Amino acid sequence: MHAIVIGAGIIGLSTAWNLRRRGVRVSVVDPDPATGASHAAAGMLAPAAEVVWGQSPLYPLMRASADLYPDFAADLAAESGRDLGYSSAETFVCAGDRADLASLRELTELQRSAGFDVSLIAGSAARNLEPSLAPGVSGCVTIPGDHSIDPRRVTAALIDVLGVDIVRARVSRLLSGQGRTVGVELTDGTTISADQVIVAAGGACNEIAGVPTLPLREVWGEVIRLRAPESLAPLLTHTIRGLVNARPVYIVARPDGELVLGATIREDGNSGINAGGVHRLLRDAERIIPAILDCEITDITTRARPGSPDDVPIIGRTDPGCLVATGFFRHGILLAPLGSRLTADLACGSESSWAPAGTLAAVGPERFDAQRPPGCTQHAQRTEPIQQPAGSHP
Ligand SMILES: Cc1cc2nc3c(=O)[nH]c(=O)nc-3n(C[C@H](O)[C@H](O)[C@H](O)COP(=O)(O)OP(=O)(O)OC[C@H]3O[C@@H](n4cnc5c(N)ncnc54)[C@H](O)[C@@H]3O)c2cc1C
């Protein structure tokens, strides 16, 4: 079998790696590998801290993927010979004031009812464990199971292990014949045929002609990378999340000393860095970790998260030759082991009995069919059958 994966973000790359480990010949096509949302991501692996009201279908997926992470990371580190910046330091979720503490208490109940191990401790107890916390922090939820990884290192490792199987080009459309996808056409007119095409182009899936229209939305976010001066290093030994006047903020402390402060959430369609957003992040982070203002900013990045209407990924078959794997929204780094394994199972026709019950139904693109306007079919944008021109390469 030859598979083409469109998109070299963490989802496309990890799916390609998974397929290759099963003996599938795989080509990944992307003009700028690993420069999309995966380049911005902080890399929190936070199935408990990401529990929010109204998203119960996500909880078992996040937990299952977090369980797969240690093996996923160990195998990738061993095969690539790279350090992935994996940290099992526990996460602290801190309340900026008493009102935020009341919200945290309620959220903690929800996290407990979803089966996660979380404990509420006093601000003074948290400061004993993490001395950089501000005196105003009024309480803190400790989450031992929420960890982190460096997504830039993960995608670099995946690119290394996939090597020459990455084609630096943009896909303009799917090729179809006899009712199924049979390959892709690149913007320079080159065609590549395949038995299976996996569309993992993040928020840009709908720009590829022939891909059934997916209900994707772009949720932009700024993230700031910083480094503490030597006199303060290490500034933090935990991942710190905060609630400040009901606004969430986080600082991920990497093993190499990098601090990642994020992230704004906006749906204004602007791809530039928003000054107000950066200002708010620094101001809110200062309320939790005052010394953040003594750090050096090394990078500010803004990217769009590929969101779905229910914030659950969209993974499934759209025709006998095509699958989609997108819509990972705020959780694509955490969900990569689960999403890539599930997508590879579907491509190979394998069972996914390892996944939590109901996973395929929860992520399947057909869950949106009832919401389509009359006359709009799932395959509305499918193009006419294309003859394979002579000279097309595999
Ligand atoms: C600020 C921010 C912070 C985040 N923090 C976290 C976090 O802490 N934890 C977490 O789990 N998740 C986090 N996320 C979410 C996570 O980054 C995304 O869910 C994940 O990166 C999505 O991966 P992807 O591979 O689907 O998309 P992308 O990484 O966007 O990759 C898509 C790829 O497709 C390529 N492409 C597009 N069109 C075409 C085409 N026509 N032909 C070929 N290639 C194409 C692009 O070049 C790109 O490389 C964060 C996101 C943001 C923006």
UniProtKB/TrEMBL annotation:
One of its GO terms (cellular component) is cytoplasm. Residues 366-394 are annotated as: Disordered. Residues 378-394 have a biased composition (Polar residues). Keywords: Oxidoreductase, Thiamine biosynthesis. It is an enzyme of class 1 (oxidoreductase). Pathway: Cofactor biosynthesis; thiamine diphosphate biosynthesis. Residues 3-346 form the FAD dependent oxidoreductase domain. It holds the Pfam family DAO. It catalyses: glycine + O2 + H2O = glyoxylate + H2O2 + NH4(+). Its EC number is 1.4.3.19. The keyword Cytoplasm does not apply. Coiled coil: none annotated. GO terms for biological process: thiamine biosynthetic process; thiamine diphosphate biosynthetic process. One of its GO terms (molecular function) is glycine oxidase activity. PANTHER family: GLYCINE OXIDASE, SARCOSINE DEHYDROGENASE-RELATED. NCBIfam families: thiamin_ThiO (TIGR02352). This is glycine oxidase. It comes from Brevibacterium marinum. The lineage of its organism: Bacteria, Bacillati, Actinomycetota, Actinomycetes, Micrococcales.
